[in-house]
What does this fold into?
Amino acid sequence: MKLRIAEEEYRSRIERVRQRLDERGADRLVLFSAKRIAWLCGYHLLATERPVALIVDKNRASAFVPRLELEAAQSQPLIDEVHHYFEYPGAEPPLKLLANLLRGAKRIIADSDGYPGLWGYEGPRLSELVKAEVKVEPKLIDDLWLVKSPGEIALIRESAKWGALAHRRLQELVRVGMSEIELGLRASYEASKEMLAALGPEYGGHMRGGFPAEAGLISGERTALPHAMSLNRKIQPGDLLITGASADIWGYTSELERTMIVGEPTSEQRRFFEIMLEAQQLGIDRSGPGVPLAEVDRAVHDFLVAQGMEKFLRHHTGHHLGFAPHEPPFIDQNSQGEMQPGQVFSIEPGIYIPGHGGYRHSDTILITEDGVEVLTAYPRDLASLIV
It folds into this structure.
């Protein structure tokens, strides 16, 4: 398979953006976010303190970059013109040079009012430098990537496939006495090595450093902290483990998480595990085209409360994902809207007991025309997750 979005799809995205500009009476779009630039035209770049921007008007897509990005930007087939400055901070703020490129514009839509404060960047707002009206509207792009195209879904499927391999390698490696960090490094290396051997030289060009496929975990009582970071703590008998695994395919990702238990589970561990698993299955079963987001979260929440878990709840049922690890909309009781075919969500209700530990599975699901497809194929039952 081709492990990237086709050029024709990028051209279609740019035309959709131009239509949206026309509907809003705007004559320029300025994107400062490297993620949004990559989604719109396929130009993946390393965002630093040096401002970058993509300018789209009715005739062309132009890049504004520091000198060190000039040749890379010029090599992009979807970028018609490239303008550059030497370095930041420079004799004058780079955004003043960008403002010169926007002369004649009457109404500009931007994803932020100036370049974000990355890596110590400090600069003026765009609205201070141009005579045009500047309207900040990041959702002009973000709303377009909510319903995934067939090409995007194919990349998310591929991510789920290699994420599952990374998780398999992690589970196989778990031993009492090994540390959380060591396990994550070894599993991620082994899975990435297999992934690269299978995908060949076509893979890459969208990330710098890191593991193409990765898996990691937290252990023991700290699993009661939903977003705890891995430590050099050694795995002990009886530990709860909460894992996470994914793979990056041209910027697209999936989410796979499991609760595992080291050795024979206690009756209390079995009880909490089965309640969590039933809640997750309920979230999957309640999802589907036309289903209100709030309805799914409410059903899961009400079930967990009925099981006496109310004081152990810390978050909602799930979130949209694909081109970013977390995207709106969210499966939350206070969310508006319904699930649509082509949307991709995590389903990950959890319960977290201080002094004991936490229980959470996460799976990536695709909303189809007539139901739900679980993209992350990995065992969820307790017997399969005892290590």
Summary: The CA atoms of residues 114 and 125 lie 5 Å apart. The two ends are 35 Å apart (CA to CA). The longest strand covers residues 240-247.
